[in-house]
Amino acid sequence: MQTLYRILLSFGLSAGGAMCAHSQDEWPRFLGSKYDSTAAAPMERIESIDWAKPPIYQWSAKVGPGYGLGSVAGGRYYHFDATDDSENERLTARDVENGNTIWSVTSPMTYRDMFGYEEGSRSTPTIHGESIFTFGVDGRLSCRDIGDGKLVWSVDTGEKYGVIQNFFGVGSSPLIVDDMVIVMVGGSPVADQNIAPMQLNRVSPNGSAIVAFDQSDGSERWRTGEDLASYSSPRTVTIGDKPFVIAFARGGLMMIDPADGTVHWRFDHRADMLESVNAMMPVVDGDEVFISECYQVGSALLKINADSFEPVWIDPPGDRRRQAMRSHWATPILADGFLYGCSGRNSPDSDLRCIDWKTGGVQWSDPRRIRSSITRVGDHLIVLEERGRIEILRINPDKLDIVATWDLTQPDGDRPALTFPCWAAPIVVGDRVIVRGDENVVCLTFPTSQTAASR
């Protein structure tokens, strides 16, 4: 079966029979192939969507504890969660056409959450060639064969690098650069290992904020950065013709040479609050990078080069009313010179807003206090509210432009309700949109002007 899948994959087919020959039918890592949570479907397909009609239900699947959504390649959806007893992490391959399970594998998990949150994955699997990489909530980095889920290698980064448990476990997704897989680790020296969790103010870093591993065997290639663990995921950026890795670490933004881990520069950006986290992925436009957090310091836009940075604008620390955006875990969407995203820490103080990329000026904000995550499809945004309702917005910097509402909060026929917490941004592959809430992943098809929308 493994050999068959590799042959089919080379022709854009899955063993389950689904066609997936083009990049627009794949979502191989967190926020998609370009790190921007944007559908890559051809324009003619996007323009055929009839947003006035409700989506068409395709399939759903029960999932275990966790908050992350999966990835898609070769006609398969790969979901990373925990078993119901939270004793094992689990990776499951499903046929994206019908949701049928193709294979499912587990491995022991030791994580126990200190705040009562679910004890499953917060991250997204990363697919590269014939391998799929997962980074578990307890810090286990694993490489598996994408054909059958067979384990190739794994590294317990928590044990290897002396990671003192972070407040909410590990939430960063793996990054592939050349023949390396790069993750946020954030370990501590031997002398700190007896410090109890919840006392991270007493914990010191040991130079392993970010670690690169060899894709083939999991051996360390380099480690860098004097920071504890971060919830943001690293990404690449190209300056001139040279690729770099940028990482929104626990203490700020770092520019890293992927060849050897050299840190070219660092911009400090973190709230004073001990329990604060940096979680959104940096948004890049040319040589400018946007970062944001919700606890105190807000946002910043930097103009960068290989050796330094220059602030374009920075929010006033501690002044929420004057801050452009306060991103928590959801990464905003850049569209035509404006950022659209959720600003705020919790629902009572959160809103959806649009800001000017160049100035940070707020264009508009939604007076309803609701947390949400966003995915872009052409000139529309799919806004998934954390309690399961979806609003379709036309991209418009002048006003909140709602064109449709998909209320998935109640069951409808075979489709289960989408319930709190819905924290992962939707995945769009081809004409499908995949969303998740508590206990369920739901796959829908976009209605078009040529199809009758039936549920």
UniProtKB/TrEMBL annotation:
Tell me the Pfam families matching this sequence. PQQ_2 (PF13360)
The record's annotation in SUPFAM superfamilies points to: Quinoprotein alcohol dehydrogenase-like
Domain Pyrrolo-quinoline quinone repeat per the UniProt entry, residue ranges: 88-365
Its protein name is: Outer membrane biogenesis protein BamB
Classification from the root reads: Bacteria, Pseudomonadati, Planctomycetota, Planctomycetia, Pirellulales
